[in-house]
Design brief:
Layout (H helix, E strand, L loop, with lengths): L1 H9 L2 H17 L5 H29 L7 H23 L5 H19 L7 H16 L8 H12 L5 H20 L13
Helix pairs in contact: 1-7, 2-3, 2-6, 3-4, 4-5, 5-6, 6-7, 6-8, 7-8
């Protein structure tokens, strides 16, 4: 019980997407000459986005007194949409790179579908966001392939904790795999390198 709880806690969706966002921003920075001002602006944008996302996730249920279909997952998805819109806008507006905007759009799309699905089916958001994030990382650069162990571990831990059924956890893995594969085969995910802008 200790290991499954630790896996679910350490790789909670809000933490994992934050880490992957930072990794992708850093990966893009390797191809640019952004300087301290550019780095500071990027870090500030990511921090503002995640404060906004976390605020919606935590404050949404308290602000809306009526019961919302999907409960906390609804507000988590809504918060992620808002946060990733902020990041997408900044990266697009100031031409900071091509990689992170694609990741943002992928997570905005994932979150929008998640908003619709969750009231009817309690698919594991832990597994969905982990698989989308690590799948994206792996398609970008195969050196991130070990990160794919995270959604597999979460699939097990969510069932072991009785937070989800096997169908809900494995379904989250399949759901995320379809989204990432569709984005990859549509040609929207850059592969093995980034053409970033300073």
């Amino acid at each position: 019980m200790v290991v499954d709880a630790a896996v679910s806690g350490v790789f909670a969706p809000e933490l994992l997407v934050t880490v992957v966002t930072i990794v992708l921003a850093g990966y893009e920075l390797l191809t640019t000459d952004a300087g301290w001002r550019g780095v500071t602006c990027r870090v500030a944008t990511v921090l503002v986005a995640f404060v906004l996302a976390f605020g919606i996730y935590q404050g949404g249920p308290e602000t809306v007194s009526a019961s919302v279909p999907g409960g906390e997952d609804f507000f988590a998805s809504l918060g992620l949409i808002a946060g990733f819109v902020v990041i997408w806008f900044a990266w697009h507006r100031w031409e900071w790179g091509d990689l992170l905007p694609v990741y943002c759009l992928l997570l905005i799309g994932t979150s929008a579908v998640h908003l619709v699905v969750v009231p009817f089916w309690d698919v594991s958001s832990h597994v969905v966001y982990a698989a989308v994030s690590t799948g994206f990382l792996t398609f970008v650069d195969r050196r991130f392939v070990a990160s794919l162990l995270v959604p597999l571990g979460l699939t097990w831990s969510r069932v072991a904790l009785e937070a989800h059924t096997v169908v809900e956890s494995v379904g989250g893995l399949v759901f995320a795999s379809v989204i990432v594969a569709a984005a990859f085969f549509a040609g929207t995910i850059p592969k093995n390198g980034v053409a970033g802008s300073p």
